[in-house]
Specification:
Elements: E1 5-6, H1 12-19, H2 25-34, E2 40-43, E3 49-54, H3 55-67, E4 75-78, E5 81-86, H4 90-100, H5 111-114, E6 121-123, E7 127-131, E8 147-149, E9 156-157, E10 164-168, H6 180-192, E11 209-210
Antiparallel strand pairs: 1-11, 2-7, 2-9, 3-5, 3-6, 4-5, 4-10, 7-8
Length: 216
């Protein structure tokens, strides 16, 4: 694997991993062969969970993961929210960990710690998320839900104008995925971090290039 790569490119192996989350992986892959610009809706809970954060806070979490931590798994951006792909089970455990960290504390003494922390949405078993198209050139803004709650879809298509893109795209059949403790670590440090220069470009520029060899 190259030490640096375009994080927006989904490899064939990464597409196979994504498709494996659906009920009909071959159909999803066949769709992407015919329409590489087509986002799909895939269920969470078996192959991956997803933690959704507002874009700016999510980028700060990603800064912490790449600057000070083990790196990240696949990460997408969708209509103002960051979707961090995490290990199955994260959606169930993370809320309890956040509560234990007094994430929602109302004590004024904790205001400096909690006021800047937006809600983190955890998508696991029974939920589904919109997966960006493998081809970034066709991903443009438009109306479509970022996630659906209910019975998982086997790979339902949505309009191509989804407003979604990969920031760190899957590039292997077995990508490393952070667990709830790692996500908590990143969220706490993002909340406490001082104002700093982001590693991310403005939204209208290309995705960042990361050194994926740093992943643990």
């Amino acid at each position: 694997m190259s030490s640096a790569w375009n994080a927006s490119d989904v490899t064939p192996a990464g597409a196979a991993w994504l498709a494996s989350a659906g009920t009909y992986p071959r159909s999803t892959l066949a769709l992407w062969v015919e329409r590489p610009d087509a986002p799909v809706v895939l269920p969470c809970g078996s192959v991956f969970d997803v933690v959704s954060a507002p874009a700016m806070f999510g980028r700060r979490m990603l800064d912490r993961l790449w600057d000070d931590g083990p790196g990240s798994g696949p990460v997408a951006e969708f209509r103002g929210r960051m979707l961090l792909f995490a290990a199955p089970g994260t959606a169930q455990r993370l809320p309890a960990l956040l509560e234990w960290e007094e994430w929602g504390a109302r004590d004024r003494r904790e205001a400096h710690r909690t006021d800047a922390v937006p809600p983190l949405l955890c998508h696991g078993i029974g939920d589904a998320v919109t997966v960006p198209a493998p081809s970034q050139s066709a991903s443009t803004p438009g109306p479509a839900p970022a996630a659906r709650t209910g019975s998982g879809s086997g790979g339902a298509t949505i309009p191509s104008r989804s407003g979604s893109r990969w920031l760190v795209a899957p590039d292997t059949r077995q990508p490393w995925l952070p667990g709830p403790e790692v996500v908590l670590w990143a969220a706490v440090r993002a909340a406490r971090s001082a104002v700093r220069i982001s590693i991310f470009p403005p939204a209208d520029q290309d995705a960042k290039v990361y050194d994926v060899s740093r992943r643990r």
